[in-house]
Design a protein that fits this description.
By secondary structure, the protein is α+β, with helices and mostly antiparallel strands. It folds into three domains: 3-115, Rossmann fold, CATH 3.40.50; 141-205, no CATH class; 209-309, ATP-grasp fold, B domain (D-amino Acid Aminotransferase, Chain A, domain 1, 2-Layer Sandwich), CATH 3.30.470.20. The protein has ten helices and 18 strands. Strands 16-15-14-17-18 form a five-stranded antiparallel sheet. The protein has a four-stranded parallel sheet with strand order 2-1-6-7. Strands 8-13-9-12 form a four-stranded antiparallel sheet, with helices on one face. One of its GO terms (biological process) is SOS response.
Length: 327
């Protein structure tokens, strides 16, 4: 009997657990593995045979399909006495070793059907935007620079500018407070504080949006939601994630023009992506602007608010593919 392998986090993960509930409902066999299992469960990787066995289960033989959701992370591996900087070095090097083990494990499972594919784990935002532009999608202008003078010139050309992380959207904890990174407009005050030279940073043209469209894409199918905010209000944030819980924010099921869908399909095929969470802006002049695709992005809000039931769709897709997959 084939089995689906789920790679995720130990704690609740909104893109994983609802899918697992549907797999349980359908009584389809699966195995969820978290990175901590590699330290607490019996693991054998036989490089001669090219086989991976975890807790007595031969993953190489029994797994046909892999559903990947944010598996890797740094662990506190060392549990001995505190050795100060040496402890930090042991943990750092142990995590490097563990990541090498994981990479080999993934290599031995490379012939399985992965969603998303392993090549998508480290997808680069600017490479995606460059590719989208080449395929004919409208894309906001952007620069990566270390120079304030170049930033000033870019702002002069496009008028309004936003800045956001080039790759990782992280958060920081200090005492009882948590700080997160969001897409932010470049204000005059912020511009004045920027030094003449700074760390390589991403700046992008701010598009005058009518509304934003969130899309969950799976194997050629689109589940799109328009996120509507009152036009008379100037208090909404540039980063729509900050407005998700506001009562005046509405989610509406949306049908993209066929021309836009075809170009997105071309992009996903070019990037070798089966799935992804896509952000698009509908401009006030009628144009659609592609912003980004996240291969392991979240989809639960549009799923529930627009009645798509995406976790059910994913589980059924996984089951169908797993049954038909031949290893």
């Amino acid at each position: 009997m084939p089995m689906i392998l789920i790679l995720s986090h130990k704690s609740y993960e909104q893109g994983t657990d609802p899918v697992l509930e549907w797999l349980l409902y359908y009584k389809y066999p699966f195995r969820k593995i978290v990175i901590e299992d590699l330290l607490t469960t019996h693991l054998l990787i036989d490089s001669q045979k090219g086989e991976v066995t975890l807790d007595g289960v031969n993953l190489t033989k029994e797994v046909h399909t892999v559903f990947y959701r944010r598996f890797k992370k740094n662990l506190s591996v060392y549990n001995g006495i505190d050795l100060g900087n040496v402890t930090n070095k042991i943990n750092k090097e142990s995590n490097i070793e563990l990541n090498a083990v994981i990479d080999f494990l993934f290599f031995l499972l490379k012939d399985k059907l992965w969603i998303p594919q392993t090549t998508a784990f480290s997808i680069n935002k600017e490479i995606v935007l460059f590719t989208a532009r080449k395929l004919g999608l409208n894309v906001p202008r952007s620069i990566v620079t270390t120079s304030k003078s170049e930033l000033i010139e870019f702002k002069r050309q496009v008028k309004d500018v936003i800045y956001k992380p080039f790759e990782l959207i992280s958060y920081y904890e200090t005492g009882h407070y948590t700080y997160s990174c969001y897409t932010t407009p470049l204000s005059k005050a912020a511009m004045n504080r920027i030094p003449i030279k700074f760390f390589p940073s991403l700046f992008q043209e701010l598009i005058d949006a009518e509304y934003e469209i969130r899309i969950f894409y799976l194997d050629g199918h689109f589940y799109s939601s328009a996120v509507l905010r009152p036009q008379f209000s100037n208090e909404h944030n540039v980063d729509i994630k900050l407005d998700f819980d506001k009562i005046e924010t509405d989610w509406v099921a949306y049908e993209l023009p066929n021309e836009v869908k075809e170009k997105i399909k071309q992009l996903m095929n070019t990037l070798k992506l089966i799935t992804g969470s896509i952000d698009i802006i509908k401009c006030k002049d009628g144009k659609y602007y592609f912003l980004e695709v996240n291969p392991v992005g979240q989809y639960l809000a549009p799923s529930y608010l627009c009645n798509y039931n995406i976790p059910k769709i994913i589980s059924e897709w996984l089951i169908e593919k797993d049954k038909n997959m031949k290893i």
